[in-house]
Each structure stands twice: as C-alpha cells, then as structure tokens.
C-alpha cells in the first residue's frame, strides 16, 4: 500500500515557526456569548432570536441564501515570514563510490555555506466572530508569521495582530482595527449527522470567497498528531488556502473550521476535516482573555482494546481504552490506575475507543476532578482523578492494534539482572531471550521485557506458568521495548 499524507490545508506553507504562546487547556463548556478584552465586554458572534434560515423545499438547501447572508463574514488572510534556506546541493544522496570524484569534492565546498533567511508567503481563510475585528482561523495559518494581512469581501485590507494560537487544537485568534463588521452565527456540531449537507467558504489557492459544498461523512475522527480534536469529516472540496475558513450547516450556522485534508497529491481527494466550532470557541475564549491555553493531562499511554484483549481481561465486548503505561507521579498514578486497567467512561460518558480518551481529557481543565469508569480484575469500579496540566509530553497515545497467533505461547524468558532492571527503569519483569510460534507472530521480539500476563505482574517463570494454567484462549502480554509499553494479545489455542 502506498503511503498517505495528512496535509494541513497549508495556508502558511514554508512559514517558520515562532515561539508562539505557551501551554494550553480547553473544555467542552458552553459557548460564551461575551469575553472580557481590554477591560471591556466584547460580544462574540451574532445569535439573534428568530426563525432559522429557510432551505429550499426541493433540490437541496438554499446555499445562495447562506452565502448572501454570511459570505461577508469570511476573510482572506495573507501571511509573510522567513525561512532558512541554502542553495547548496544535497551531497548526502551521492553514492559512496563517487565521493572521491573531483566533482564531488568541488560541490562539497558549498555544504559549509551558512543558511540564509528567505522571504516566504502563505495564504488562508478566517471568519469574523466579533463586530470590532476579532477573527478566528487556524494556528498553522499564522504561526511564525512576521506580518498578517486580512482582506474583507469589500476589498478593505488591514494589518492584523495575532492575539495567540494553540497548536494542539490548531486554533488562532487575530484582530484587525475595524468596527461594525458582520459576524457569523454559531451552530451546534452535536446536531450534525452523517449525510447532512454542509457548506465551506474560503480562499483555495488564493481564489477569494470560493463556495463549495458536500455532506458530513463522519464525526469524531481522530487524526495522527491531532488526538485532542474530534474532527468532522466531510467530502466538501477543501484545498490549500481554505484553512481557517468556516463550515456552515444548512441554517447558515458555523459548525466547524476547515483545517486539514487527507491526500496523496497535496490537493483535494474527497476527504476533508473540520474542527468542531464548540472546541474552537472555547479555545478562542482562553486566547482572547489570557493569550494562551492550557490542556489537561491524565498521564497514561493507552491502546485499542481488540477482541483478543477483551477476552484476556474478561470484558464481554471490545471497548474502552487499555492502559499500557502509567507515568510516575501522574494524576493517573495518584488515582490508582495501573497497566492493564481499561477505562470505560469519563464522567459517565462512554469511551468507545482509545482515540476517544485524549479528546475527552485534553479538552478539560487542569485541576478538574474527573470520574473514571474502570474495568479492573474482571469487574467495573469508579475512581476519581484530579487532572494535571499538559506540558508537551505524550498525553495519551494509541499504541496500535493486535496480531492473531496460533497455539501455545512460544516464549523463552529469564529473570532480569539488576543492571538490566536499572537500564530499563523497571522493578520486575522477565527478559525475552527467544520467541517462536504465536508470540512471534503477535510481534514479540527477543530483547523485549515481559512485565505482566493478563494484567498480573511477573517476576519468575513459575508465575507465568501459574497464570497461563488459569488463562483462557487468549492471553495479554504487557511488553516493554525501549521506553514504550504495549499489551500484545496472544491466542493460546
């Protein structure tokens, strides 16, 4: 299978990253109607009472009415910055047998050239959330920009100030010195259903106020390196320059911010992703009031619960997030969570997959108590943890799926030596010296450390044998490889 790439619909391609704003926390609290800015109360958005926008009775929604009423709330963003570059050729690609060539020696002198700052430009979209010039867009549009220019639909242009951005959720707020501007109306992404019509307005490739439409393809998508955002997936045509633009529902309400596309070419191929507006607004409020955002953390690494792992832990259906590792001194450790526990719910909200957990935790407040429904030792219980503050380390990581095996286990192990325990930073476990059969097929390798079987820590071969005698057809091996831990299901037969 050919590799695939997630492209942030790059509005600011080539812009060098700046120091930015620190840290970050958001929550799913209600959407604010006002914020405090410069000791003034500033209204956000435009949510007047009254009948919702009418849609066409036949032939789909009336997109023209939406564009006519709210098109002027969408802006074009042009950014300028600098990136380090050198004209030196890449000599690392020269085959070793040619490196004694006089041509190689001639060109090698250019390798010592110092990189120079090269001007770069990028473009994107945004939309107005307050009549006095507050604009919402993507963090990747403005991050590291030396200057930001905003152009309205009436062709007025303003130099914008970046109030702040949050790279974890890809949200940024900029402000222009203008008043009496039209503002968008906020919708509720929870009311969206797959198959609903949606509409995007933006500046793909610099074509101002381009209108495209499609349907909601799926909700709560988790994307690589963006595990805090439950993306709305659509088939709306989104291309570089659409980043930061609004996604409207058929009532003319903004339900998301167009942020990324899934593509092999860099252009639209039918898969686009938008940040839900309730996530964006909560982040924006933090940025407007303090210039930064803080995200909460639990301090665990998790993986998907496959059917084999569910069988191993006595869980009837494969659901929840399996705890593979608990950071020392973390909120999870203080609450009593341990490797082998399965988190089934957060504040009574079900955790259907491991990808749900970082979204739920990361969008809460540090210091907030959270009730976790946990499956442990073949029974469910509730524990309370007080969330910490995310500092840039891994919050929750999905360590991947599983591999089916055959009959038997196929492991040769021995107790760890004190020096090996010290190097691996563990206090128990067995060193895997040889792997055959099902364990090998499941991905276990020589040099791995076996820490637990079916959630029970092991220090000796006898402990492993005792656990296996009582095990079912599938056992879950907690394996440490380097600094990473993962549960590996192995079918015994």
UniProtKB/TrEMBL annotation:
Residues 280-378, 402-483 form the PDZ domain. Pfam families: PDZ_2, PDZ_6, Trypsin_2. It catalyses: Acts on substrates that are at least partially unfolded. The cleavage site P1 residue is normally between a pair of hydrophobic residues, such as Val-|-Val. One of its GO terms (cellular component) is periplasmic space. Keywords: Hydrolase, Periplasm, Protease, Repeat, Serine protease, Signal, Stress response. It is found in: Periplasm. Belongs to the peptidase S1C family. This is Probable periplasmic serine endoprotease DegP-like.
């Amino acid at each position: 299978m050919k590799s695939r790439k997630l492209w942030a619909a790059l509005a600011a391609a080539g812009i060098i990253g700046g120091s930015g704003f620190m840290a970050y926390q958001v929550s799913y609290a209600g959407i604010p109607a006002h914020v405090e800015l410069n000791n003034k109360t500033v209204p956000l958005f435009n949510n007047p009472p009254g009948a919702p926008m009418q849609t066409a009775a036949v032939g789909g929604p009336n997109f023209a009415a939406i564009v006519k009423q709210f098109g002027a709330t969408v802006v074009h963003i042009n950014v300028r910055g600098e990136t380090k570059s050198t004209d030196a050729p890449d000599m690392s690609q020269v085959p070793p047998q040619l490196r004694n060539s006089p041509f190689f020696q001639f060109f090698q002198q250019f390798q010592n050239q110092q990189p120079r700052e090269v001007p770069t430009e990028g473009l994107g979209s945004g939309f107005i959330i307050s009549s006095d010039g507050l604009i919402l867009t993507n963090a990747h549009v403005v991050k590291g920009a030396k200057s930001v220019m905003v152009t309205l639909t009436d062709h007025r242009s303003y130099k914008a100030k970046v109030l702040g951005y949050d790279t974890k959720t890809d949200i940024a707020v900029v402000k222009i010195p203008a008043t009496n501007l039209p503002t968008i109306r906020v919708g509720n992404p929870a009311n969206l259903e797959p198959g609903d019509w949606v509409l995007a307005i933006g500046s793909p490739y610099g074509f101002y106020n381009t209108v495209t439409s499609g349907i909601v393809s799926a909700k709560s998508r988790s994307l690589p390196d963006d595990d805090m955002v439950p993306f709305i997936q659509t088939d709306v045509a989104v291309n570089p320059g659409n980043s930061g633009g609004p996604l409207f529902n058929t009532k003319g309400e903004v339900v998301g911010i167009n942020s990324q596309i899934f593509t092999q070419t860099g252009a639209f191929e039918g898969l686009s992703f938008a940040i839900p507006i309730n996530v964006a607004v909560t982040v924006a409020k933090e940025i407007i009031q303090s210039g930064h955002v803080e995200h909460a953390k639990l301090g665990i690494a998790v993986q998907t619960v496959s059917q084999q792992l569910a069988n191993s832990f006595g869980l009837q259906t494969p659901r929840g997030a399996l705890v593979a590792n608990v950071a020392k001194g973390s909120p999870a450790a203080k609450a009593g969570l341990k490797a082998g526990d399965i988190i089934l719910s957060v504040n009574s909200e079900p955790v259907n997959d491991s990808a749900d957990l970082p979204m739920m935790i990361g969008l809460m407040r540090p210091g907030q108590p959270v009730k976790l429904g946990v499956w442990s030792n073949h029974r469910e219980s509730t524990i309370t943890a007080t969330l910490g503050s995310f500092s840039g380390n891994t919050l929750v990581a999905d360590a991947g799926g599983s591999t089916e095996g055959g009959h038997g286990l196929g492991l040769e192990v021995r107790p760890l030596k004190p020096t090996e325990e010290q190097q691996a930073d563990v206090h128990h476990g067995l060193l895997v010296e040889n792997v055959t059969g099902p364990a090998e097929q499941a991905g276990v390798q020589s040099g791995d450390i076996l820490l637990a079987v079916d959630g029970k820590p092991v220090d000796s071969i006898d402990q492993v044998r005792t656990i296996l005698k009582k095990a079912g057809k599938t056992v879950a091996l907690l394996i440490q490889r380097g600094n990473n831990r993962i549960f590996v299901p192995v079918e015994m037969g």
